[in-house]
Amino acid sequence: MNTRSDMIAVFVVRRSADHGHEFLQLRRSASEFMAGSWQIVRGKIESGETAVHAALRELLEETGLTPIEFYALCSVETFFLASRNTIMHVPVFCAFVDDTAAVTLNEEHDASRWVPRLRMRAAITWASERAVLREVLDDLLPNSLAKPHLRVT
């Protein structure tokens, strides 16, 4: 069995007059691994790159978005990929973006959608994403005691 920690994940959030907050999901293109699944921003950490830099790069490459606020979660997403016999440990981030920013997809994705906060848990495909969503909901959307300490500048 293998263990890897060379991937990142990013929740992307914007304010919404109707829903308080909305979360961005991307649908994987037919030619990509996990084709057709709705996911948050994900990507590989390149050689010599920190997890923070990889997360910001992947956010820009996959969505064309730049955060106005950026946070590193305390939680690490952990899951098992049976097809690769690999346990994945993935640092997770949260990017708050301007509510008027337009999403520009790269070739890895064929659709995007903004999901209202109250529907996000049900819209998530993967249990490991639902587990780390709790930290975003509890510590980042409200002004929690942890929020200023999680901010990446």
Describe this entry's structure for a reader.
The chain has 153 residues and is an alpha+beta fold. Helices cover 25% and strands 39% of the residues. The chain has helices spanning 51-63, 117-123, 127-140, 147-150; strands at residues 2-4, 7-16, 20-28, 38-39, 41-44, 69-81, 86-96, 109-116. Strands 1, 2, 3, 4, 5, 6, 7 and 8 form an eight-stranded mixed β-sheet that branches. Strand 2 (7-16) and strand 3 (20-28) form a beta hairpin.
Outline type: globular
Compute the number of strand runs.
8
Q: What structural class is derived from the secondary structure elements? A: alpha+beta
Oligomeric composition of the shown chains: single chain
For the termini, the CA-CA separation is 36 Å
Helix content: 10-25%
N-to-C SSE string, H for helix and E for strand = EEEEEHEEEHHH
Radius of gyration (Å) = 15 Å
In a few lines, what is going on in this structure?
By secondary structure, the protein is α+β, with helices and mostly antiparallel strands. It has four helices and eight strands; from the N terminus they run E-E-E-E-E-H-E-E-E-H-H-H. The mean pLDDT is 94.
Q: What is the topological layout?
A:
Elements: E1 2-4, E2 7-16, E3 20-28, E4 38-39, E5 41-44, H1 51-63, E6 69-81, E7 86-96, E8 109-116, H2 117-123, H3 127-140, H4 147-150
Parallel strand pairs: 1-7, 2-7
Antiparallel strand pairs: 2-3, 2-5, 3-4, 3-8, 6-7
Tags for this model:
alpha+beta; 8-stranded mixed β-sheet; 153 residues; 39% strand; 4 helices
